[in-house]
Amino acid sequence: MKRRPFIAGNWKMHKAPAEADALAEQLKRALADVTAVDIAVAPTFLSLPAVIARLRHSNIGVASQNVAVEAQGAFTGEVSAEMIKVAGAQYAIVGHSERRQVFGETDAVVARKVQACFRAGLAPILCVGETLPEREAGQEEAVVGRQLDVALAGLSADQVGALTIAYEPVWAIGTGKVASPAQANDVHAFIRGWLGRYPAFVARNVRIQYGGSVKGSNAAGLLAQPEIDGALVGGAALTVDEFVAIVQAAG
Ligand code: PEP
Question: Distance from CA of residue 14 to its chain's centroid?
């Protein structure tokens, strides 16, 4: 049985509140008729309130790009999952490769952030993926398996079953180098197999998005793969026509 596709746009550090509001409004109009695809966008923390307000009565959900480990306290510069939930977001991206590589987030920190999402009632989109040297050494499954082992340790089957996992090979993010549909599907199938350690509903329910230079022109080929349930989109999510084309390729 095919899972309901899920397309999410990661706006990264782009779009101050007025611009984010305008992009959200354009997407809301352009995607209003889509019923067969779950859609979300992830603005910066600063733009979250404007985008949440703009998309409140729409078919587009809102995600944060990160969460703090702790719920509150003396953690300068952090925003907690609880605050994001109260602001009205539904999802949070956790463990994005830019968080791991640029900000030094370890697998253990990512695990605590996944737990913070569940504590607060946010649905995590957990990012995993190998670097280019790891891919060249044939270690992609070992790396993704380790990231999953640590990030999901201690979660209940129900929690794991509620996750979205984004497979994002680091060498394909923002580089224009997209994994071939077969390369992506192979790792998705590995992740699906990894989920087989839980009761059967988990592997059946978890949506695995592909991320890494997805565009309107390559989305259909990727989304046609049996194990690819959607996409996490960076650069192309900032252009209305591109993002709409990706959503349409999923529907
Ligand atoms: C991302 O940031 O998650 C991403 C996949 O970026 P891009 O689509 O630009 O490669």
Answer: 17
